[in-house]
């Protein structure tokens, strides 16, 4: 004869949360909840921004920019820019030779303004980077990316209310046609780059009499006639101030 088995009622009541009598236990009173859910993301600690670069057909130079994670809206870089402009070593670390605001279009010599969802308008920062030694374009963009992360986490961190963004090097922007500096920079900024890059361009007179004038204009403006017309409209003093 087999031995008598224990009743499973007690065990089952513990596992299921039911009382031995089969009645459900009384529920605790729920704390009051808000009637709506706050889905606002403004208080997020940090975001990821994308650094991309373009080959502009100028020897040993590229242009780089940073956007928010959506790849369209410009990244907020003001706190980082302030720190970089104070320190020449930081510029060298990021291969930066020039920083400006992106132009609106080839036809309009105005700064591009991108509207946000709040209605405010933001500029896009453009960085001209110089390639050194055996460095590749991607290497230079990587140096800029690391600089942004380093400065954002340290010197510039107080400038970000909800935490500095992190930056990722996303590589080259592929264009259907070869862009030039003038696709990104204002006329006067293009002249500044000419003066900083080429020998025999310190004054307008020097450039206009430079034996490589046509090559320089073709490289920077994408069209030598366009470059020549811009130079001809510029007063000597305006050129000197670039």
Layout: helices, strands, pairs:
Layout: H1 9-16, E1 48-55, E2 61-67, H2 78-85, H3 88-93, E3 96-101, E4 114-115, E5 121-122, E6 125-130, H4 137-153, E7 166-172, H5 187-197, H6 204-208, H7 213-221, H8 224-233, H9 236-241
Parallel strand pairs: 1-7
Antiparallel strand pairs: 1-2, 2-6, 3-6, 4-5
Helix pairs in contact: 7-8
Describe this structure in words.
The protein is an alpha+beta fold and 242 residues long. It has two domains: 125 residues, Gyrase A, domain 2 (2-Layer Sandwich), CATH 3.30.1360; 56 residues, no CATH class. Helix content is 33%, strand content 16%. It has a five-stranded mixed beta sheet with strand order 3-6-2-1-7. A two-stranded antiparallel ribbon has the order 4-5. α7 packs across α8.
Any idea what the radius of gyration is?
Answer: 30 Å
Strand order of the largest sheet: 3-6-2-1-7
Largest sheet: 5 strands, mixed
Structural domain count: 2
Shape: elongated
If classified by CATH, what would the architecture of the largest domain be? 2-Layer Sandwich
Tell me the β content.
15-25%
Question: How many H/I helical runs?
Answer: 9
Poorly predicted residue ranges: 1-20, 38-45
Number of DSSP strand runs: 7
- Topology pattern, helix = H, strand = E: HEEHHEEEEHEHHHHH
Report mean pLDDT, rounded to a whole number. Answer: 86
Structural class: alpha+beta
Helical fraction equals 25-40%
Q: How far apart are the first and last residues' alpha carbons, in Å?
A: 108 Å
Level-1 CATH class name of the largest domain: Alpha Beta
CATH topology of the largest domain: Gyrase A, domain 2
